[in-house]
Specification:
- The protein is α/β, with parallel strands linked by helices and about 500 residues long.
- Helices cover about 40% and strands about 15% of the residues.
- A six-stranded mixed beta sheet has the order 7-6-5-8-11-12, sandwiched between helices. A four-stranded antiparallel beta sheet has the order 1-2-3-4, covered by helices on one side.
- The N and C termini lie far apart (about 100 Å).
Length: about 500
């Protein structure tokens, strides 16, 4: 018995083998924890796939050129965009169709337009089945998530181009072009025996009477017709006739000139033999390039509208605001053709829409303020944001010429515009004014005895012009172009600046 009691005592105090017992007791929770980690890892990977699908759906539903983006851009107010919701759901489901390992998938997409902001929100939930967690009473894990994206909608912008087509814009575009014209121009020879550099655009009248011309022209001013034909061809005509035009041509000018020398309707490049480029030509060419930029930049149909509004004494709609800016410059029904032929609007003294003589900012700005009937924020096609692009040499001249050969009145001494009286009323309405200053080229060989020293006043006024135009322009919207190429570059810069500023403002 003593031995038996001794064995029992030893058994009671023996600790050998406890680790096995402890492991056996701990095995179940250890296996449960490992199983939970495996199940959770599988659920996490499934959630990542669902999240990727949601991200793709929220971004794609409002991406440019998507059905939802196009539909939202066409809306005239705020609200839900059903086309974008459908697109988001389709993208999400398309990404998850080949994926298995989940059940009870639920996806909810909302796409809303608020002003010029488009917001997409895709939310999802799904059940992922478990294996190990069943021992603790779970049959699945629920995973949820969401993805939110936003995009800026395209802004609908109107560009009103105020185009100075007064006499000074009929000057050749460069000094070299002035030299070429003065060498062959018979106009006003009595006052400019070294050659007139201002292309005279008036029709038959006293200004270009034969008594003042270098050779008989049947009272025609020749400055403009000469710029529309071959320079070498015209010089050859003069050389063949001892410095005059042939007598057979004089009675029918300019038609007879054009029948002898093939004319061009516009002159897009300076220094070419086919024409002499005027500043109005350079501006017109730059506007045609603006159409190219606008067409390449637009993201929705009819996003931009452009109108051409030349002015001399009056401002009028040479080509009213239109979104059809992708026409042919050789088709006379398009705004592209109108821009390319801007020089045709130079002062002819017969166009009652423009009037004649001087440069009348005091009439042009109030007229433009009336033409722009409403100022929107650019959020919709019926809520457009207006920009005024003023393209000018900045010289204001208050003189007036009666139409069809009538007399002159008013001072012909050039001044500058009044930015407070003329520009501020438009800016106070929220209209942005962008100014492209084409510096007034000093007139070569000025005659101080002609017309009360008109040339002298014009040349001395040049220094005062930039400050007045800069004060007229909205902040960061004053540009200068010194050459024809600069005009094209600056006009595109004005357009791009308008896009940037419009997005910041809205």
């Amino acid at each position: 018995m003593r031995h038996l009691f001794s064995l029992i005592g030893r058994f009671r105090t023996d600790r050998n083998g406890n680790i096995a017992v402890i492991f056996a007791i701990a095995l179940l929770p250890i296996l449960t924890a490992v199983g939970c980690a495996v199940d959770y890892s599988l659920a996490t990977r499934m959630r990542a796939k669902l999240q990727a699908a949601a991200d793709a759906a929220s971004v794609a539903s409002i991406s440019q050129k998507s059905p939802g983006y196009t539909a939202a851009a066409a809306m005239t107010g705020d609200g839900s965009v059903s086309a974008a919701v459908t697109d988001a759901n389709n993208v999400f489901n398309g990404n998850m169709n080949a994926v298995t390992g989940y059940s009870n998938l639920s996806v909810t997409s909302t796409v809303t337009r608020t002003g010029t902001t488009l917001t997409s929100n895709v939310q999802f939930s799904a059940n992922v089945p478990v294996v190990f967690m069943k021992v603790v009473g779970y049959t699945s894990l629920t995973v949820t998530g969401s993805s939110k994206s936003s995009a800026s909608l395209p802004l609908y912008l109107d560009f009103y181009l105020m185009l100075d087509v007064s006499g000074s814009m009929g000057l050749p575009s460069t000094d070299n072009e002035q030299t070429r014209l003065s060498a062959v121009n018979p106009d006003n020879y009595a006052n400019y025996p070294t050659g007139c550099t201002l292309a005279c655009h008036f029709a038959t009248q006293d200004v270009c009477g034969n008594s003042g011309q270098k050779y008989p022209t049947n009272n025609y001013c020749m400055g403009y017709p000469i710029t529309r034909v071959s320079y070498s061809g015209y010089k050859q005509l003069l050389q063949n006739n001892s410095g005059h035009l042939p007598n057979s041509m004089v009675s029918g000018l300019p038609d007879s000139l054009y029948s002898t020398l093939s004319p061009v309707s516009s002159c897009s490049t300076d220094g070419t033999d086919s024409c002499i480029q005027l500043r109005a030509d350079a501006v017109g060419y730059a506007v045609t390039q603006l159409f190219v930029t606008a067409n390449a930049t637009k993201t929705v149909t009819n996003q931009f509208r452009i109108g051409l509004y030349p002015f001399i004494r009056y401002l009028y709609a040479y080509f009213a605001l239109t979104s059809s800016i992708n026409g042919s410059p050789t088709n006379s029904s398009t705004i592209n053709y109108a821009a390319a032929n801007l020089a045709s609007q130079l002062d002819t003294n017969i166009n009652s829409n423009l009037g004649s003589g001087g440069t009348h900012f005091e009439n042009a700005f109030p007229s433009m303020n009336t033409i722009i009937s409403s100022v929107g924020n650019g959020s919709a096609s019926n809520n457009t944001l207006p920009y005024v692009f003023l393209i000018t040499d900045g010289a204001q001249d208050p003189q007036v010429k009666a139409l069809n050969g009538g007399g002159w009145s008013g001072s012909n001494h050039a001044t500058t515009l009044d930015p407070t009286a003329l520009c501020k009323p438009l800016k106070d309405r929220g209209i942005i004014i962008s100014v492209l200053y084409v510096p007034y080229q000093p007139i070569q060989n000025p005659n101080p005895s002609f017309a009360g020293n008109e040339d002298g006043f014009a040349n001395s006024n040049i220094a005062d012009i930039p400050a007045s135009l800069q004060a007229c322009a909205s902040p960061k919207f004053f540009f200068t172009a010194n050459t024809p190429a600069d005009i094209t570059t600056a006009l595109n810069a004005m357009f791009n600046q308008a896009l940037v500023t419009a997005h910041i403002t809205n």
